[in-house]
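re: that complex we talked abt at group meeting.

here r the seqs, copy pasted straight from the sheet so there may be weird spacing, ignore it
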Amino acid sequence: MALTVKVDPGKHTIRITKSGYFPIKFDVTVEAGETYNISRTLIPTNAVTIQKIEITPSNPKKGDKVTVKVTVKNNTNMTLSCRLRVWIVGVTIIGNPTFSLGAKATHTWTGTWTADRTGSLRLRAAADVYVNEHEKGAGYYETDSTYIDFTVSERKATITITTTPSGAAVYIDGVYKGTT
Amino acid sequence: MVDCCELLKKYDTNRDGKIDRDELIKAYDDWMNGKITWEEFQIVYDAWMEGSINAVCPGCYEEQPSEPEQPPPPPPTPKKAVLNISTSPSGANVYVDGEYKGIT
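got the structure back, here u go
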């Protein structure tokens, strides 16, 4: 349903808001006696959501090349300009790719990170969508975010011990480890 | 003899309360043609000389009240432009220049 508004000739600022959608604002310049048909499609604040976030290996060791996969979905019937931000909190940015995402389409982005430290870490991902006439200015605005926690452990050496005869007890640094 | 007021009003054809030269000439012609008497012509002549009907026949001419002064017409209002605003989905609030205008 269209809203009809009569205005004086000149420049006017129009602002449109709806709960669950990004607010937009734009200017129009009108002439006396003329009729202007203005139509806008509002972008939902959950237009793009993160469906899946995973790392491989799931329990990496220091020095491992960690693969990060993030899958996002366009929940609308329009093609959207999207941006994904993927980072390890307090450590590094893994990537912030931009891409076009068709109506109802999904997209999986893959990045890598070499585990250069040990400890408990948090991988975060945020999905943004470009809003051209956002009331705060054109740009990418967040529509979803999520995270997973993981631990990078120290990589250990393997010692294989055999004795003749077998059945001998083995201690390493004073700690019993088993029998051969 | 006719009433002075009726006589003078007859010759004051432009209703300005005075006998003008053309009006006097008409009265003269009427006297010459026997339509009015010499005394009646003299009344018209005196009014011409005095420059006023009322000077000869007091209270005969009543000045017409002037038209009440009309207020000046308002300045023309500027013609408006029409905005037909629609959104998808509908149900959005619309503000123009910061003023709420309604829902699409």
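couple things i noticed - The interface with chain B takes residues 1-9, 12-18, 21, 28, 30-42 of chain A (CB under 8 Å). The first strand of chain A starts at residue 3 and ends at 7.
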